[in-house]
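quick one before i forget lol
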Amino acid sequence: MRIAVDAMGGDNAPHQVVTGCLLAAARYPDTELVLVGDREALEGLLDGSPRPHNVSVHHASETIGMGDDPAHAVRRKQDSSLCVACRMVADGEAQAVFSAGNTGAFAAAATLGIGRIPGVHRACIAAVLPTAGGRAVVVDAGACVDCRPEWVVQFGIMGALYAEEVEGIAGPRVGLLNIGEEPSKGNSLTKAAHDLLRNCQLDFRGNVDGKDVFRGGVDVIACDGFWGNLLLKSSEGAAEFFFSLAREAITSTFWGRVGGLLVRPSLRQMKRRVDYAEYGGAFLLGVRGLVVIGHGRSGERAVVSALERAREGISHDLVARMQTRFAGGEEDAA
């Protein structure tokens, strides 16, 4: 396996990205990691540690920042680490690409540089959320904020295939994120998408109300990128707020600190289950290459997890299976 890594992308790049790659390279000696970015800066970081045989550097002279306008940056910075890494996949020099940088720019660079799978209208981000039943795949989690109903249906199709192939969920149940369970609820987009999903070849379970997202009633939650991203970030913020409240309550009194020693293992286990670093990254589905998008705050542990996800996608031949699924073109949208 050969994975191109945008080593300059993310809040903690390049140091944390390089450290995570070194840890992953030691864990997976059969996987070559190509660090794309400023050669001088990357070589300086690598000189301080024993370099594994499966880590190399590919020079890129520019960097796309987290605050850069995605479309403008991708057009103007063709020699950025992000664009160069995507081109490596397009040219067959790597089987997957990972970045924790600007999500909008990454999605644009992957869509333009690698290209969409024929028959796919729009690419979507597949993010994983923990639920009472295990995990649920949210599609789209932010790639396409202005959608048409048939695009949301394709998100559900791609999410179901991903859930089955990578997450190992047999016969995934698909739901539509909405403001109520009744088919009549929602706006014009969700009403039209509901009708289309009900008539396509998926195990469609109807609308999923916000309060039911984490109850585990469905395995795939289809939605437009605006609401999917809002759901993802609100969930992350709520989890962080809960643990900050728990920490404050436990440390505020003597007996709370004593009790905290007893519940600490359980709290750590719970925190790992909701920690984005455990999931590492989200796949951008619908493009002709394997694309893994990392959290902007990714540290070394999240980078390792994201590269593990990339390996899973490669080993399951996810892109080829997606291409086969959409070989019929437009008919798969209905």
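fyi The domain at 125-276 is CATH 3.40.718.10 (Isopropylmalate Dehydrogenase).
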